[in-house]
Design goal:
Length: 300
């Protein structure tokens, strides 16, 4: 199974950029802020919330990080001006984390400060494991002065349960996802059920300890478990939200919305769509079929 997955990963990575763009259109709101605003307006009309993300990561110089910060400020202003029910997601490597940690901190602070002025919120995505400590450090430092910032944690990391226990006095707002980066088995669970079990363990701790959590998954098994836990613990529907990615499991998204839960859609946009799209295609179970059919056509 893992060999087959590796083959799909290799095939996706070998695709020409135009083919990646064709298959990943549904995951991206468009190249411009105006495109993303329109997508979010349509969600809001149906009672669905959004978190907006300017695509990009691992910038190579400070100017690129400053540009990313400016784009983040533009998103916050657009949310305010268009009265969108949305917040902002950011990646710290896009704001300069790998260049200069203090410089990155200043960039995030500017975004969080602007978000505070307009009564909004910034969610810091979690990237690969070498950035986990620095991401916690920056978010914890900001939480000393701002309550409108939260972090993401990944259920595949063995450290996550302890991270929540250690940090929950300072950070009480999380997005919980499985995790997307290819981490070593020494630090990460690799088995699907082990990741699910850790997800449930972390979610259970969060729900029992009054931590606000964005339950970010499209896995029906986890969503059913979450429904049951919320019911059994008598958690009020405004203390949690579900989160999904744009273009993934829209049927399930609509069901959660109809069931009266808050549901927030991660809505990425921008010109730097390639790395994000590759990650999404690797996770798309239909990719294997597309690749197989393409190979078959090629052979004929
Ligand atoms: P799983 O991958 O098992 O998918 C469950 C089902 O969903 C699949 O069987 C399939 O039906 C459908 N599905 C999933 N992905 C699909 C795709 N691309 N195309 C079509 N169908 C698909 N990760 C991270 O490391 N750091 C982060 O900050 C974030 N942020 C984030 C925000 C939000 C709102 C979400 C929903 C997810 C993230 N992630 C993330 C990604 C996350 O870690 C994970 O990689 C994906 O959500 C896929 O995991 P699932 O829990 O959906 O399960």
């Amino acid at each position: 199974m893992s060999f087959f997955n590796d083959l799909i990963v290799m095939a996706v990575q070998a695709m020409p950029k135009s083919v990646v763009g064709f298959f990943s259109k549904k995951y991206i709101a468009g190249e411009t802020l105006a495109d993303a605003v329109q997508v979010v307006k349509n969600f809001n009309k149906r009672g669905i919330l959004a978190t907006m993300d300017v695509l990009g990561e691992s910038v190579k110089n400070k100017q690129e990080a400053l540009d990313a910060k400016c784009k983040g400020l533009e998103v916050l202003n657009a949310i305010y001006e268009n009265k969108l029910n949305a917040n902002l997601s950011v990646k710290l490597t896009q704001l300069g984390l790998l260049l200069d940690e203090e410089f990155c901190y200043q960039n995030v602070e500017e975004l969080v400060s602007r978000a505070k002025e307009i009564n909004n919120f910034v969610r810091v995505d979690m990237e690969d494991a070498p950035t986990t400590d620095a991401t916690f450090k920056i978010v914890k430092r900001l939480r000393q002065n701002y309550s409108n910032i939260g972090i993401v944690v990944q259920a595949y990391l063995k450290r996550t349960y302890d991270d929540i226990i250690v940090n929950s006095a300072v950070i009480n707002n999380y997005r919980l996802c499985k995790g997307i980066y290819n981490e070593s088995p020494t630090i990460a669970y690799k088995d699907k059920q082990q990741i699910r079990d850790n997800y449930i363990k972390v979610l259970d701790y969060m729900l029992k300890n009054g931590i606000y959590v964005g339950i970010a998954t499209h896995d029906e098994y986890l969503i059913k478990k979450a429904y049951q836990m919320i019911k059994d613990l008598g958690i009020s529907k405004d203390k949690i939200e579900f989160q999904m990615l744009l273009g993934v499991r829209e049927d399930l998204r609509n069901k959660i919305n109809n069931d009266g839960y808050k549901i927030r859609i991660y809505t990425p946009f921008g010109k730097d769509w390639y790395p994000y799209s590759i990650r999404r295609l690797k996770e798309n179970p239909q990719m294997a079929g597309h690749i197989f059919r393409a190979l078959f056509r090629f052979k004929k």
